[in-house]
Amino acid sequence: xxxxxxxxxxxxxxxxxxxxxxxxxxxxxxxxxxxxxxxxxxxxxxxxxxxxxxxxxxxxxxxxxxxxxxxxxxxxxxxxxxxxxxxxxxxxxxxxxxxxxxxxxxxxxxxxxxxxxxxxxxxxxxxxxxxxxxxxxxxxxxxxxxxxxxxxxxxxxxxxxxxxxxxxxxxxxxxxxxxxxxxxxxxxxxxxxxxxxxxxxxxxxxxxxxxxxxxxxxxxxxxxxxxxxxxxxxxxxxxxxxxxxxxxxxxxxxxxxxxxxxxxxxxxxxxxxxxxxxxxxxxxxxxxxxxxxxxxxxxxxxxxxxxxxxxxxxx
Length: 315
What we know:
- Helix content is 36%, strand content 17%.
- It has helices spanning 17-24, 29-37, 41-55, 71-83, 95-98, 123-139, 154-162, 224-235, 250-258, 268-276, 304-312, and strands spanning 3-5, 115-120, 143-148, 168-173, 183-188, 191-195, 216-218, 243-246, 263-266, 280-282, 292-298.
- Mean pLDDT is 77; it is low at 1-17 and 79-112.
């Protein structure tokens, strides 16, 4: 099984969505979860959908119906059972409390009979690997993959690799990073989104200087997606107006976008979801913003199985 490590680096959720997810995936599903927590079924479905947007992959096949867990949802639920016993609200294992030495990868002790590979990647990147990881594990039953979703950027990836916290690290960057050998995986284009009725939504071309006075919606400053987006905007010579809201609650962002109160920059699965949503339109910039690269780095001191997995993920 794949083991997941979550931490506050993903930024806090507005509600205890981890608990709601755990209960929603159990007997009785979302209906029982809503009843037990004194919430409406719509509120539970909204929180779970928000969590799926944050992660970048589907946890349930049908939130409105039986709420059946996807394969990735089952893996996530299994991991929560292992990692949330002491700290259910944050889904993390504190190494000092667990008695693990600093150089030990998280949760390796949970699978002592199997060789462990620690794969660090942003949650949306994991969404690209679900099938490949399942295939690799099926073909290598003596290998357990520990997935750490707290690494987003090059500095975090480099630190995890140097400290032996990760064998393979995927991270966001705008190109090659000095001091961190890596290879290019793929790129994700940044787009700006506004309400469908916003004056810029219907334009054929928008100049960057027109965005300076536009109010913006942004994720919280410590969010890894926010940090790489800000870097790309600076590199692309695009200056946006002051934020009217800084939040990781994506439903709040979508609501305010539809009301026409600002613009929001996004890439990857989140951008694709926004592009398909009613009431939200994309700003047609006269020149594209720099693309976000997803890069892979491998710890040269890791076991051969890690190198094999790194190559397999490129197939």
